[in-house]
Amino acid sequence: MIEKKRFLGARIEPKILGFVDSVAEERNIDRTGAIKILVCAGWRELQLEKAIGLYRDGRISIDKAAKMAGITVSEMMQKAAMFGIKSEETMEEYRRGIKALMK
Amino acid sequence: MAVIADACSVILLAKSTVLEELAKWKQVIITKSVHREVIEGKEKMFFDALLTEKLIKERRILVDNSNVERLAQKLRDDFGLGDGEAESIALSSNMKDKIILTDNRQGRKVAKVYNLSLVGSIDVVVALFKADRINEEKANSALRALKRFGWFEDYLIEQAFQEVQK
């Protein structure tokens, strides 16, 4: 089924139009195609930021964050590590963990 | 004793190349959603996904199909857990003689709320060494891999390095 397309008119600053034209030139596509690429890339980036923030604040788990950002759990873990987010395991939990496994 | 692992720990232990050793030592169980979350990486040829699939085919890792949906849904709603994490904790709450293995902040928090026996990937590496399942070289190599990944506090990794010296 062909998706119905909608018209969008927007006033944008020359600097932003420069980004659009740069993508259009690099990929040899028109401005509409370039805008779609930039909007989708921006959307993904915003979703990732949101997911990382919620994970960092202890509001969601890493698998939920991955789903929100549209990437795999493995990729989300790498992103979280890049943002310096650690597991928060304490020394006491570590010792208890070893003890539990050795039983 | 069974070890119920979430996607996060399966991935970390696979990357640090001790997942197979753990699966030879303990009964490792994952839920359907954890299976899906790890295997998603297969399309991108992630090592962790390929190794996990191999271990499942060899029946070293079991995929549990128990219906724990009622509690899992509550955990998703109350604590913002994803499908795999919620199912893992729900399954752990239903089973006797088990440990939950997770390195996920939110998952660890919920496991403590439910008073579950909780372990992490660093604990697994050190325990494998202490139980003579891996040698000093393998333990050091696994800890170096975990350190490189940047998921754990440095003091914890340094403590683990000290404990795997003979």
Pick out its properties.
heterodimer; A: 103 residues; mainly alpha; 5 helices; elongated; B: 166 residues; alpha/beta; Rossmann fold; 10 helices; 5 strands; globular
SSE blueprint:
The complex is a heterodimer of chains A (103) and B (166).
Chain A: H1 14-27, H2 31-56, H3 62-69, H4 73-82, H5 91-102
Chain B: E1 2-5, H1 7-15, H2 19-25, E2 27-31, H3 32-39, H4 47-57, E3 61-64, H5 69-79, H6 83-94, E4 98-101, H7 105-113, E5 118-119, H8 121-130, H9 136-149, H10 154-163
Parallel strand pairs in B: 1-2, 1-4, 2-3, 4-5
Q: Mind explaining what this structure looks like?
A:
The complex is a heterodimer of chains A (103) and B (166). Chain A has helices spanning 14-27, 31-56, 62-69, 73-82, 91-102. Chain A is mostly helical and 103 residues long. Chain B is an alpha/beta fold. In chain B, strands 3-2-1-4-5 form a five-stranded parallel sheet. The two termini of chain B are 27 Å apart. The interface between A and B is large, with 37 and 54 residues.
